[in-house]
């Protein structure tokens, strides 16, 4: 047996060996399906906190640059382009998301002008490398094209997340991928139009001064959790996607002991709104089941609970089990493993919906 330094929990040596084997796999196998873009410098769960893409003006964001430059449209005519660069704080200390809002200004000529999205690059002082960015409308996308990713339409604001190219993108070059430390440091952002005109924005080092939005509940929080100091007990938490519904489904399974030291199995479930930072639920005591049988177990509501997220590794659990003589409290939850799972989603959204519709 071995001690997990982070949580104080006892972890079987065989499991640690398995984890070491996982870490020794080639990079391609290790990151297979872990993220669509495992080279992203942005904490994936932080991106789920991003508000609706047409409204970044909130207390946890900051405008870094706001200017109008000359740009070339798809007819190779000069147009005015408004460029606003934002940063948003993440729950993770010292981490941010950079965003760019672009608008091809209406020149009142009666023509619906369009322009190609710019190429985006980053340059770090003292480093000759020109780091490649992608302007994405969603995080961690697995881009496959090496050209621009879309069009700008006259009079329409479009906001993008500044991310790195994914490994399967044709323009992916491992030597041109900006690391998280560089992304959160100071650098020059270059936005280049099809004719080679470049607009340069100075991106300052992120000082961690922005108040990040509340951590959003997402499937990335699913997994095994423990309470520091509570030996041989813990939680399995699932934050699930409801197919074709705009809400999530939460499930808790709590393995603990009653006041006499006997095993206690408690569960809870509830739906929650997308972008919610907490979920409340009834806690049920499960008893009198049948081993590998079809007999439904008895369930009795014995309390209530609320789970709130602070970051990917820290949750808060408020519970009331007074009906069982166990009182009420607020306790921290910590991940049992920093590397929670190998892989993320097994099937895509369409596959999961088809499976549910087929009665799976």
Characterize the structure shown.
There is one protein chain. The chain is mainly β. It folds into two domains: 2-22 and 214-357, Lipocalin (Beta Barrel), CATH 2.40.128; 37-203, no CATH class. Helices cover 9% and strands 40% of the residues. The protein has five helices and 20 strands. A hairpin with a 4-residue loop joins strand 16 and strand 17 (278-287). Mean pLDDT is 78; it is low at 1-35 and 140-148. Keywords: Signal. Residues 1-29 form the signal peptide.
Quick structural gist:
By secondary structure, the chain is mostly beta strands. It is 9% helix and 40% strand.
What secondary-structure arrangement, pairings included, does this model have?
Layout: E1 2-3, E2 10-11, H1 13-23, H2 27-30, H3 44-47, E3 61-72, E4 78-89, E5 96-104, E6 114-116, E7 119-123, E8 131-136, E9 151-153, E10 158-163, H4 180-183, E11 187-192, E12 198-203, E13 223-226, E14 234-241, E15 247-257, E16 263-273, E17 278-287, E18 298-311, E19 314-320, E20 328-335, H5 349-357
Antiparallel strand pairs: 1-2, 3-4, 4-5, 5-10, 6-9, 7-8, 7-11, 8-10, 11-12, 13-14, 13-20, 14-15, 15-16, 16-17, 17-18, 18-19, 19-20
Keywords: Signal
Signal peptide: 1-29
Number of helices: 5
- Within the largest sheet, what's the order of strands? 3-4-5-10-8-7-11-12
Strand fraction: 35-45%
Please tell me the total number of domains: 2
- Unreliable spans: 1-35, 140-148
Distance separating the two termini: 38 Å
Number of strands: 20
Helix content range of the residues, please?
under 10%
Structural class: mainly beta
| SSE sequence, one letter per element | EEHHHEEEEEEEEHEEEEEEEEEEH
Q: What is the overall shape?
A: elongated
Rg (C-alpha, Å):
24 Å
Average pLDDT across residues? Answer: 78
* Main pleated-sheet profile: 8 strands, antiparallel
Signal peptide: 1-29
Keywords: Signal
């Amino acid at each position: 047996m071995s001690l997990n330094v982070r949580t104080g929990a006892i972890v079987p040596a065989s499991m640690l060996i398995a984890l070491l084997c996982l870490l020794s796999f080639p990079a391609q196998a290790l990151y297979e399906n872990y993220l669509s873009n495992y080279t992203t410098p942005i904490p994936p769960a932080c991106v789920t906190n991003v508000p609706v893409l047409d409204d970044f003006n909130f207390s946890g964001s900051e405008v870094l640059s706001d200017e109008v430059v000359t740009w070339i449209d798809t007819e190779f005519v000069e147009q005015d382009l408004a460029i606003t660069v934002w940063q948003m704080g993440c729950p993770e200390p010292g981490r941010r998301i950079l965003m760019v809002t672009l608008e091809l200004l209406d020149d009142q000529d009666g023509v619906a002008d369009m322009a190609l999205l710019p190429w985006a690059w980053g340059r770090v002082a003292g480093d000759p490398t020109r780091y490649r960015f992608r302007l994405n409308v969603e995080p961690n996308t697995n881009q496959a094209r090496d050209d621009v990713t879309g069009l700008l339409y006259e009079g329409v604001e479009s906001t993008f997340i500044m991310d790195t190219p994914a490994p399967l993108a044709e323009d992916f070059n491992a030597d041109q991928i900006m690391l998280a430390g560089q992304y959160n440091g100071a650098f020059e952002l270059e936005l280049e139009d099809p004719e080679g005109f470049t607009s340069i924005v100075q991106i300052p080092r992120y000082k961690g001064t922005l108040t990040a939005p509340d951590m959003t509940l997402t499937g990335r929080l699913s997994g095994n959790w423990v309470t520091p100091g509570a030996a041989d007990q813990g939680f399995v938490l699932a934050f699930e996607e409801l197919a074709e519904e705009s809400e999530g489904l939460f499930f808790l399974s709590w393995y603990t002991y009653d006041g006499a030291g006997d095993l206690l199995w408690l569960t809870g479930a509830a739906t929650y709104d997308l972008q919610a930072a907490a979920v409340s639920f009834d806690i049920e005591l499960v008893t009198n089941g049948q081993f590998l049988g079809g007999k439904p177990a008895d369930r009795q509501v014995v309390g209530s609970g609320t789970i709130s997220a602070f970051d990917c590794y820290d949750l808060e659990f408020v519970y009331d089990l007074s009906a069982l003589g166990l009182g009420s409290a607020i306790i921290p939850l910590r991940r049992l493993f920093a590397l929670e799972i190998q892989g993320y989603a097994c099937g895509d959204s369409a596959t999961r919906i088809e499976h549910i519709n087929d009665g799976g």
